[in-house]
Amino acid sequence: MLQVVAAALLDADGRVLLAQRPPGKALAGAWEFPGGKLEPGETPLAALARELDEELGIVPLDAEPLIRVPWLAGRRPLRLDAWQVRRWRGEPVAREGQALRWQPPAAVDPAELAPADRPLLHALRLPAHYAITPPDVPLDQAERLAARILAVLDAGSLVLLRLPRWPTAAVRALAARVRCTRPQAALLLHSDLEGARDLGLGVHLTAAQLRSLDSRPLPWQRLVGASCHDAHELARAAAIADFATLSPVAPTASHPGQRPLGWQRFAAAAEAAALPVYALGGLQPTDTHLARRHGAQGVAGIRAFWPDA
């Protein structure tokens, strides 16, 4: 397997540095995160430091794991080991003649990136928490729920509107109201593709929807998530979605007879997945660091994220 490292260099304004692949190379014209191949016997961090010096003339002063992405480059498998770098010595310059640009991650068009770099962008954009609305909130509590959703969004979480007891029109009305108040809200509708298209929101696909789709159902500017329960579904999600949830990690009261994955099995599946994965099932926001240590983007949950809903 070809081992590759990449750096998400973030400046003081939160912008990320992208480099354009030059003419004559595979995927010429596509944008990517700076980096390159490991040399024999080289560790990922040593390779990262060498590549950043060779390409940009800088020395990284810190690096935090972002995501590891397995990929197939032609017929050759590779693993892209990505790191966040917020401090470095020197000023980045194009030492290999490549075009460079700084952009806020939210402004980067994934369609312009090399395919293997898109999961890096999603991992950079996505927060550590994914809050799923409780399924039993009464319809007459819409006003209160809207206020809670706005508070959760303001705290930096991604929010999934999953209200199976509500009429579809009522869920869409709630989404439109939140969207009107927070135009850039990180809000997704559960399984409602038509509503997501009409409202300009993201969508979270069920496992059944994931199996039925052949391509991405929304434009790149809209988030697509997917519910997964094993490595096979995660592999399918990588071709369709931007991120996935994998569940259940721990025992849950809502599915008492279902065998949990446990952290070891979760980590193995997340490691093999070519997209960010949230750990879901029996977890609390306080489990975020534990989840990150096992390769998760963060933690998804229902009750724990809405204590007063």
From TrEMBL:
On whether Metal-binding is a keyword of this UniProt record, the answer is yes
Q: What family does the database annotate?
A: Belongs to the Nudix hydrolase family.
Report the protein name in the record.
Answer: 8-oxo-dGTP diphosphatase
One of the protein's GO biological processes: thiamine biosynthetic process
Reading the lineage from the top rank, the first entry is: Bacteria
Cofactor names: Mg(2+)
Entries under PANTHER family matching the protein: 8-OXO-DGTP DIPHOSPHATASE, NUDIX HYDROLASE FAMILY PROTEIN
Pfam families per UniProt: NUDIX, TMP-TENI
Q: Which organism is it from?
A: Aerosticca soli
Q: Which residues form the Nudix hydrolase domain?
A: 1-126
The catalytic activity, as recorded, is: 8-oxo-GTP + H2O = 8-oxo-GMP + diphosphate + H(+); 8-oxo-dGTP + H2O = 8-oxo-dGMP + diphosphate + H(+)
Q: What is its EC number?
A: 3.6.1.55
What keywords are annotated for this sequence in UniProt? DNA damage, DNA repair, DNA replication, Hydrolase, Magnesium, Metal-binding, Mutator protein
| Entry's Gene Ontology molecular function annotations | 8-oxo-7,8-dihydrodeoxyguanosine triphosphate pyrophosphatase activity; 8-oxo-7,8-dihydroguanosine triphosphate pyrophosphatase activity; 8-oxo-dGDP phosphatase activity; 8-oxo-GDP phosphatase activity; metal ion binding
- SUPFAM superfamilies (UniProt xref): Nudix, Thiamin phosphate synthase
